[in-house]
Amino acid sequence: AFGAAAGVVRGGENGPAQNPGFTGREEQLAAIRAGLLAGGPVVVHSVQGRGGTGKSQLAAEYARRQAADYALTWWLDCENTVLLGQQYAELAIHLGHAARADPPAEMRRAAISALRQHPGWLLVLSNVTDPANVGQWLPDGPGHVIITSYQDYWSGLATVPVGSLPRDESVDLLRRRVPGIAEGDASALSDALGDLPLSLALAAAAIAETGMAPAE
């Protein structure tokens, strides 16, 4: 049933919608690819636990760029283990290996068993807060796993740290989203916002909606 059910599960259906303003991060994207090809999960984690660095956007951009390499891409939000179980249940149903009336634990086992049997999948486990809590949810077999986390204490796994954007990438992000913004204004705004992608995106949206000056 996997082959029939496959086809990439694209952004808006099972994960973040495509971000048309994504910019930069080429080094991190290459590191994710290299880590996955070397085997084992890859952890995309925040530098010093900072939010707004774009961990999930980075994982989503990797999935978008490499979509042709995967028969199935599935996004799992790991902040709540109850909801995580429900998401694995949906995966098992999607793969045709479980019925909606099956017990949750059985559906999780069915999903993981299905992934062991079929090649070419990508799982993104997003917002993992404790490595000890995800062991039972990690599939093995012929596929790839990306974990995003605020934490940097993942031992034995390939890790890709994500921090603030380089200034030139911050400026590029703003100039793409705010046509006509002067480079000096974009640089000053980037500096004020610590070059954090989420903050920059919110500022760009505010400028676009209100017409306020960047200095304001």
Low-confidence stretches: 1-13
How many beta-strand elements?
Answer: 5
Output the strand order for the largest sheet: 2-3-4-1-5
Provide the structure class: alpha/beta
How many H/I helical runs? 9
Shape: elongated
Please state the average pLDDT score.
84
Description:
With 216 residues, the chain is α/β, with parallel strands linked by helices. 44% of the residues lie in helices and 13% in strands. Helix 3 packs across helix 4, helix 5 (81-94) crosses helix 6 (104-117) and helix 7 crosses helix 8. It is elongated, with a radius of gyration of 19 Å. It starts with a helix and ends in a 6-residue tail after the last helix.
Short overview:
The chain is α/β, with parallel strands linked by helices.
